Amino acid sequence: MIQNKKIIALLMAATTGLVMSSEFESEAADRMMNMEQVKILGEYKLTQPYGFTDAPEEALLDLKKAAMEAEERYQEMKRKEEEERERRAAEEARKAREEAERIAAEEQAAAEQAAMEQAAAQQAAAEQAAAEQAAVQQTAAYSASASDQTLLAAIIFCEAGNQPYEGQVAVGAVILNRVRSAVYPNSIAEVIYQSGQFGPAMSGWLDTVLASGGYTDTAMQAAADALAGSNPIGDCLYFGCGNFGIQIGDHFFH
Q1: Average pLDDT per block of 10 residues along the chain, 254 residues long
Q2: Distance of CA 237 to the CA centre of its chain
Q3: What is d(CA 42, CA 194) in angstroms, rounded to the nearest whole number?
Q4: Distance between CA atoms of residues 231 and 225, nearest Å
Q5: What distances in angstroms separate CA 143 from CA 97, 169, 176, 225, one per listed residue?
Q6: What is the pTM of this model?
Q7: Nearest to residue 230, comparing CAs of 173, 175, 157?
Q8: Per-residue b/e over 2-17, b at no fewer than 16 CB within 10 Å?
Q9: I need a labelling partner for 72 at 20 to 30 A (CA). Which of 20, 127, 144, 167 fits?
Q10: Taking phi first (over 0 means left), then psi (-120 to 50 degrees means alpha), and beta for anything else, what does residue 54 get?
């Protein structure tokens, strides 16, 4: 406590001396300042006016040390403040950058999603158009000669003569679907006689029915209806006694 009082006294003495020295230098005699002593301490000048005794050397050293420490603390405080400003600026810049990246990512994701939806819509529209076109083709009338109709009636009789009428029309529709398909031949006769496809054609039974006219009127009508566009099985290309597909009578169409 005593040392602090000494330092305060010294500071007061220094301040008083500097102020009075600068303001009343020309009137020193009239003011009776009677400057007794100026001590030079490093870069500090301590001027003692009348009434103050010389400060001990130790006190002056303590004063200089305290002043230097105060200056260091001030500079350290300024440095920390500057670092804090830089840290906040960097943090704000980072947040702004991340926000911009987030917005850009969301916009990119939205654009990609929109593109995917558009592509899906276009594909769905194309598939729908193709399906509609196929449906039109499957139900469109097929121009055939009398011999083609007779051949179709004969194969219908051989394959489904014991099946419901709808099943007989369905067999004729399968043959016409093959004619329209790019995978099979493009004529009724070629489709029916294609190797390994229809058993009656391969065994010779079909030719026997044709030669004898052994097909029924029902089979001939089923052939006529199929040629006119009747199609109960859609785009099916196969039929048999399996267990999957559209069942009509004993046959499954797929």
Answers
A1: 49 47 43 42 45 65 88 92 93 93 92 91 83 64 91 98 97 96 95 96 96 96 96 94 91 95
A2: 41
A3: 118
A4: 9
A5: 71, 16, 11, 12
A6: 0.51
A7: 173
A8: eeeebbeebeebbebb
A9: 20
A10: beta
